[in-house]
Design brief:
The protein is α/β, with parallel strands linked by helices and about 290 residues long. It contains ten helices and eleven strands.
Length: about 290
């Protein structure tokens, strides 16, 4: 009969991965460094593989450690959800949340599935709109909370995740090699659009606007068909896409913050619970293997 993984060891393992240090992980899980080291020694013995290698003063995961990490996050999360479902009083009611469609496609399935397991009596109503509209609707009290793209001096919220922006093209076409690059970007006013255009302008790369849409699925379709190059969040990367780098003539475009805005103190208990689930899910989200190129 196979041995069972120890949830406490896995929690410490995740903390080491996130902090890069046995010492900092010990502070997070309230254990001494020697206790953390002993836990990891036992975990490696159970797995039968080496999970860490030294990198200066820090520790990084081996390939086997990276493989275990995804399982560890899920096991710890499920354990926490199970305990929460017994410890927290049941709540019910309606929660009205908003999100751009990019985030709805990538994040919502997991977020809503997790929330439903621990709060089965809560009804969630979802509105998919642009970040600026969602912020205003939340301020007016029409929504309890919203996931939004933060933009300096315009849209700000409780930052729950920082996401890289990348250039993508079709893996089956050579669209990016055209002398005047066709682009597929969001409509005017989108923060990603302006960052991408500013970066191209600085490099002097010639381009033309071929497709514009507020819908991420439409942008992805243009890219996959070989009709355009796009600047998208890394989380939107799909099979059939190729990441473009400076060696391909496309400049680095940095990252952006994903935030959450809330209705305020008048929000009900269910809304606060969903907000906590969203913050945890986005913080823990790991890009699928294909996103590593």
């Amino acid at each position: 009969m196979p041995h069972s993984l120890d949830t406490d060891q896995l929690r410490t393992f995740v903390a080491i991965s996130d902090s890069g240090s046995f010492t900092r992980a010990g502070q997070e899980v309230h254990k001494t460094q020697s206790a953390v080291s002993m836990q990891m020694k036992r975990l490696e013995e159970m797995i039968g593989r080496k999970l860490f290698v030294r990198d200066g003063r820090n520790s990084r995961l081996t390939a086997d450690g990276e493989l275990l990490l995804d399982y560890a996050r899920r096991i710890v999360r499920m354990s926490d959800e199970a305990m929460t479902s017994f410890r927290e009083p049941s709540c019910s009611g309606l929660v009205r949340m908003g999100t751009p469609d990019d985030y709805a496609d990538r994040f919502l399935p997991e977020i809503l599935a997790r929330f439903s397991r621990t709060h089965p009596l809560v009804q969630v109503e979802v509105a998919c709109q642009g970040s600026d509209v969602l912020v205003e609707r939340t301020r007016r009290g029409e929504l309890d909370l919203a996931i939004v793209t933060c933009t300096p001096n315009e849209i700000q919220g409780e930052v729950v995740r920082r996401e890289p922006l990348i250039w993508v093209t079709s893996a089956r076409h050579h669209t990016h090699e055209q002398e005047v690059v066709p682009l597929a970007l969001s409509n005017i006013g989108c923060a990603w659009r302006q960052v991408a255009l500013d970066a191209l302008d600085k490099t002097g790369r010639a381009y033309r606007m071929a497709y514009t849409s507020q819908n991420s699925a439409a942008i992805s379709a243009a890219v996959l068909a070989g009709l355009a190059v796009a600047a998208v969040p890394k989380m939107v990367l799909k099979p059939g896409m190729r990441v473009l780098r400076q060696a391909d003539g496309f400049p680095d475009i940095g990252s952006f913050d994903i935030g959450m805005v809330r209705k305020g103190e008048a929000a009900n208990a269910a809304a606060h619970a969903l907000a906590d689930h969203i913050a945890g899910s986005l913080a823990d989200y790991a890009h699928p293997p294909m996103a590593a190129e």
